[in-house]
Amino acid sequence: MLDCELCNFFKTKNSELKSEVVCMCELTGFVFHDKVEDYDIEYPCYSFNLEIMEPKSKENAEIEFDELKLA
């Protein structure tokens, strides 16, 4: 069973039909047309390689942090 409903990238998407709830993985673009627990597949993101990038310098990191505080 997929635990995508617990993921921060799992979002409800507007559907043309009001009675239909469509969800989507913002990371991969995979659209869930059925309930997540009904899928018998690997996670849509199982083959994604995510890389955490470190700032080039401490000064750049401080500037970016200050900009985030202002937002």
Q: Could you name the ranges where pLDDT drops below 50 across 5 or more consecutive residues?
A: none
Fraction in helix: 10-25%
Oligomer: single chain
Mass-distribution shape: elongated
Overall number of strands: 3
Mean pLDDT: 78
Gyration radius, in Å: 17 Å
Largest sheet: 3 strands, antiparallel
By secondary-structure content and strand pairing, the structural class works out as: alpha+beta
Counting DSSP H or I runs of 4 or more residues, the number of helices is 1
- Strand percentage: 5-15%
Describe this structure in words.
- 18% of the residues lie in helices and 14% in strands.
- It contains 1 helix and 3 strands, in the order βββα.
- It has one helix at residues 58-70; strands at 10-13, 22-25, 31-32.
- Strands 1-2-3 form a 3-stranded antiparallel β-sheet, with no helix packed on it.
- It starts with 9 loop residues before the first strand and ends with a helix.
- The mean pLDDT is 78.
Secondary structure elements and pairings:
Blueprint: E1 10-13, E2 22-25, E3 31-32, H1 58-70
Antiparallel strand pairs: 1-2, 2-3
What would the keywords be for this entry?
71 residues; alpha+beta; 3-stranded antiparallel sheet; 1 helix; elongated
Briefly summarize what is shown:
With 71 residues, the protein is of the alpha+beta class. It has one helix at residues 58-70; strands at residues 10-13, 22-25, 31-32.
